[in-house]
């Protein structure tokens, strides 16, 4: 049986390095993982997905895309926010709905 490596929390420096490596190598997880001492490809991929989900900053471009997506999808009530989120990379449907309801300028 293979010994498992103990879980070690990601440091802010590792997060920054991960994002830098993704910009350089895309999502070539094996290449990226080779630049870390105690991280494998799966760990790097999972951390990247976590960081994307927790990203709460919105750009003007994302706000514009959100406004357009809401307008384009008003009739699809049941799947409304899921359809909208598909048009805004790195944002979940919950983040889109929350942003829409919290920023009055978007509704103009």
UniProtKB/TrEMBL annotation:
SUPFAM superfamilies: Homeodomain-like. The keyword rRNA-binding does not apply. Residues 2-47, 58-104 form the Myb-like domain. Residues 2-56, 58-108 form the HTH myb-type domain. GO terms for cellular component: nucleus. Keywords: DNA-binding, Nucleus. Pfam families: Myb_DNA-binding. It comes from the Eukaryota. It is found in: Nucleus. InterPro entries: DMTF1_DNA-bind_reg, Homeodomain-like_sf, Myb_dom, SANT/Myb. Its main location: nucleus. The keyword Nucleus applies. This is Myb-like DNA-binding domain containing protein. It comes from Gigaspora margarita.
